[in-house]
């Protein structure tokens, strides 16, 4: 599964709990983005997830489910991304929900389609931070330490810098970039147009664009080419 995500430079994240018209969905899926991730931190149900998957399947691009609620474990995705929030003291978001999921779904779990994401949640004023009780008051050294736990101690395929709803501190992103060697570095949060997309694309492997799809789809679409046109900096040239 690592091979599937390796080429992903740009992805759109669609929230099953939000409305998106057919025209907008078509534009997003035909934009040239590398993949769609379906996910949200609240209000994700089996029904709204099935319905969004069926609509996305009209288009020919990979579609992953980022599992945030057991009730929404819908079969038929190309990939299942499993978040573990590293910077919370509430272990249910690191292991607890995961244990329950495995007890509940057992042999139904398509293990070969699962990828674990080491989440570092950095916007204290986001649903995901409130939900998981994440400690978002991290400086660059602390964020970098969590990133190395994911990359070097846990060997996770993905480190996800999650600024959901706000544009991140690029000094922190840069520090994390310098330290992550094996994991694929995802960044998501507050990208509202091409300039921000380019800045992030220079530092991270994969750029995730979410909320702006729902408020200004034209700006969201411009991020695709912006990421394509941006060369990623080598760690040595940061
Ligand atoms: C049978 C079948 C098809 C199985 C496939 C999947 C499955 C159930 C596998 C079982 C194995 C397993 C280990 C599952 C994990 C179960 C689980 C619920 C884990 C908890 C994951 C977690 C830490 C969730 C917390 C929230 C989170 C990190 C969500 C990620 C998405 C995210 C941050 C969205 C942003 O939220 P948004 O709502 O957009 O925020 P804003 O409102 O601020 O925009
Ligand atoms: O919605 P935005 O702020 O673009 O963030 C994208 C994604 O990281 C959310 O999980
Ligand atoms: Mg969102």
From TrEMBL:
Sn-glycerol 1-phosphate binds at residues 13, 160-165, 190, 210-211. Mg(2+) binds at residues 15, 41. Pathway: Membrane lipid metabolism; glycerophospholipid metabolism. It holds the Pfam family PcrB. Its cofactor is Mg(2+). Its EC number is 2.5.1.n9. It is an enzyme of class 2 (transferase). SUPFAM superfamilies: FMN-linked oxidoreductases. Belongs to the GGGP/HepGP synthase family. Group I subfamily. Prenyltransferase that catalyzes in vivo the transfer of the heptaprenyl moiety of heptaprenyl pyrophosphate (HepPP; 35 carbon atoms) to the C3 hydroxyl of sn-glycerol-1-phosphate (G1P), producing heptaprenylglyceryl phosphate (HepGP). This reaction is an ether-bond-formation step in the biosynthesis of archaea-type G1P-based membrane lipids found in Bacillales. NCBIfam families: GGGP-family, PRK04169.1-1, PRK04169.1-3. Homodimer. PANTHER family: HEPTAPRENYLGLYCERYL PHOSPHATE SYNTHASE, PTHR40029. This is Heptaprenylglyceryl phosphate synthase. It comes from Paenibacillus tritici.
């Amino acid at each position: 599964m690592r091979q599937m995500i390796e080429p992903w430079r740009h992805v759109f994240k669609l929230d099953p709990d939000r409305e998106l018209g057919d025209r907008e969905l078509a534009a997003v899926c035909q934009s040239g983005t590398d993949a769609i991730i379906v996910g949200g931190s609240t209000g994700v149900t089996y029904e709204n997830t099935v319905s969004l998957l069926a609509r996305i399947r009209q288009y020919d691009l990979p579609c992953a489910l980022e599992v945030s609620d057991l009730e929404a474990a819908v079969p038929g995705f190309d990939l299942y991304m499993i978040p573990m929030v590293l910077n919370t003291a509430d272990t249910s978001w690191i292991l607890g929900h995961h244990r329950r999921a495995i007890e509940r779904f057992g042999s139904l779990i398509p293990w070969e389609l699962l990828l674990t994401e080491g989440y570092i949640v950095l916007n204290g004023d986001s649903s995901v931070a409130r939900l998981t009780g994440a400690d978002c008051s991290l400086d660059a050294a602390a964020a970098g330490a969590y990133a190395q736990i994911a990359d070097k101690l846990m060997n996770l395929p993905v480190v996800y810098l999650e600024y959901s709803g706000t544009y991140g501190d690029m000094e922190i992103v840069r520090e994390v970039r310098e330290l992550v060697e094996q994991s694929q570095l995802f960044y998501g949060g507050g990208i509202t147009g091409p300039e921000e997309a380019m800045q992030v694309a220079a530092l991270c492997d994969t750029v995730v664009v979410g909320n702006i799809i729902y408020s200004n789809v034209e700006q969201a679409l411009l991020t695709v080419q912006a990421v394509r046109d941006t060369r990623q900096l080598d760690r040595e040239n940061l």
